């Protein structure tokens, strides 16, 4: 009897696999662009399905407002998207992890603060000034420091970025001190829906601006000469140079775009929270987690990874809030443990797919075996 049941179950699984394959082939024929963007990457689809399933299960087991948690996760993740995409773009061109990116986020926050609070300008004007100022800061960093370190390995620019981070952080402390400050912008009440509450500026505006920036970046990378040059240089710098691409200009533009995205993330974060010297450093590890989960060589992967980190972090709050109840273990300060879930997800992705969900192996290099591949090989 048990053997027959096992045979029936095995046949059902085969039928489901065949149905899934037919669905993918049908989508490939009918919507090739969507297929190329996501359907072909079955691991990404599986990840989204797993997160959705985990969300439903956690909601059933521990309660909580699932809609509010997911919306908050998307809002938090939208800030990570901006910072992580800038990191990924710069890594693709310069081939090093910029540990000063968090401090650039903070510097962008203070650039907007100068106009918004210091000069009484509207926050939108402060944001525009911050974007331009940080773009020029990125260009200056390339010209004065990182261009001189080309050809000296990956360690030299990485260590230099740590030094730049320390310099920026101490410059901010010397100029503004360690006090917590705030922007001046219209104070409005939360919008209340039957399912959740959301702040029009800190929630809706943040998510809208992030999605708009992601769309504009996609248009830049896929429709413009600069974007195509950036992609070519990321894939093979020598081939791009021999093809007539001005790699110098591409590098400068990449620094400008990366730092402008950092400034945008910093201003949105300052509006949602406050303005303080440790603001960017507090999210730097989350940005690295996002690019690692999505694929550090893929800007699109960084976008996906940013949202995944935000949602997973907020979903973990359902369990942590349950553990904080007096009748369970009365966990103290449960929100302090939320980052654990995001970094646990990063470790799992590193074990199962080291190049990230949308990443690809290093050009010309041997692909590292994932945990599943090692287990399959025995």
Explain this structure to me?
The chain is an all-alpha fold and 378 residues long. The chain has one domain (60-184, 204-357): ABC transporter involved in vitamin B12 uptake, BtuC (Orthogonal Bundle). Helices cover 73% and strands 1% of the residues. It contains 15 helices and two strands. It has helices at 2-30, 32-39, 42-62, 66-94, 101-118, 123-144, 155-176, 200-223, 225-235, 237-242, 247-272, 281-294, 299-323, 339-352, 371-377; strands at residues 191-192, 197-198. A two-stranded antiparallel sheet has the order 1-2. A hairpin with a 4-residue loop joins β1 and β2. The longest helix is centred in the first third of the chain and has 29 residues, at 2-30. The radius of gyration is 23 Å and the shape is globular. Residues 33-40 and 363-378 have low confidence and may be disordered.
Helix and strand topology:
Layout: H1 2-30, H2 32-39, H3 42-62, H4 66-94, H5 101-118, H6 123-144, H7 155-176, E1 191-192, E2 197-198, H8 200-223, H9 225-235, H10 237-242, H11 247-272, H12 281-294, H13 299-323, H14 339-352, H15 371-377
Antiparallel strand pairs: 1-2
Helix pairs in contact: 1-2, 3-13, 4-8, 4-9, 4-11, 4-12, 4-13, 5-6, 5-7, 5-11, 5-12, 6-11, 8-9, 8-11, 9-11, 12-13, 12-14, 13-14
């Amino acid at each position: 009897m048990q053997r027959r049941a096992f045979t029936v179950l095995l046949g059902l699984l085969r039928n489901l696999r065949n149905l899934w394959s037919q669905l993918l082939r049908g989508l490939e024929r009918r919507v090739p662009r969507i297929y190329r963007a996501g359907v072909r990457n079955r691991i990404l689809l599986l990840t989204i399905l797993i997160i959705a399933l985990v969300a439903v299960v956690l909601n059933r087991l521990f309660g909580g407002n699932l809609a509010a948690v997911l919306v908050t996760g998307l809002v938090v993740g939208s800030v990570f998207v901006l910072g992580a995409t800038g990191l990924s773009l710069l890594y693709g061109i310069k081939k090093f992890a910029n540990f000063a990116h968090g401090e650039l986020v903070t510097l962008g926050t203070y650039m907007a603060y100068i106009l918004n609070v210091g000069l009484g300008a509207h926050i939108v004007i402060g944001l525009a000034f911050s974007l331009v100022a940080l773009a020029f800061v990125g260009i200056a960093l390339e010209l004065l420091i990182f261009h001189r370190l080309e050809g000296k390995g990956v360690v030299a620019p990485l260590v230099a970025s740590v030094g730049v981070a320390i310099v920026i952080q101490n410059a901010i402390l010397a100029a503004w001190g360690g006090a917590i400050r705030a922007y001046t912008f219209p104070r409005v009440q939360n919008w209340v829906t039957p399912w959740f509450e959301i702040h029009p500026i800190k929630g809706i505006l943040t998510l809208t601006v992030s999605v708009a920036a992601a769309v504009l970046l996609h248009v830049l990378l896929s429709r413009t000469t600069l974007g195509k040059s950036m992609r070519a240089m990321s894939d093979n710098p020598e081939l791009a140079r021999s093809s007539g691409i001005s790699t110098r200009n591409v590098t400068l533009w990449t620094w400008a775009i990366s730092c402008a995205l950092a400034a945008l993330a910093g201003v949105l974060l300052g509006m949602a929270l406050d303005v303080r010297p440790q603001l960017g450093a507090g999210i730097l590890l989350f940005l690295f987690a996002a690019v690692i989960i999505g694929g550090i060589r893929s800007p699109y992967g960084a976008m996906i990874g940013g949202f995944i980190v935000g949602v997973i972090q907020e979903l973990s709050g359902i369990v942590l809030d349950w553990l904080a109840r007096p009748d369970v273990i009365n966990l103290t300060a449960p929100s302090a443990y939320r980052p654990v879930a995001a970094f646990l997800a990063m470790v799992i992705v590193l074990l199962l797919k080291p190049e990230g969900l949308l990443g690809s192996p290093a050009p010309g290099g041997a692909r590292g075996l994932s945990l599943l591949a090692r287990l399959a090989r025995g």
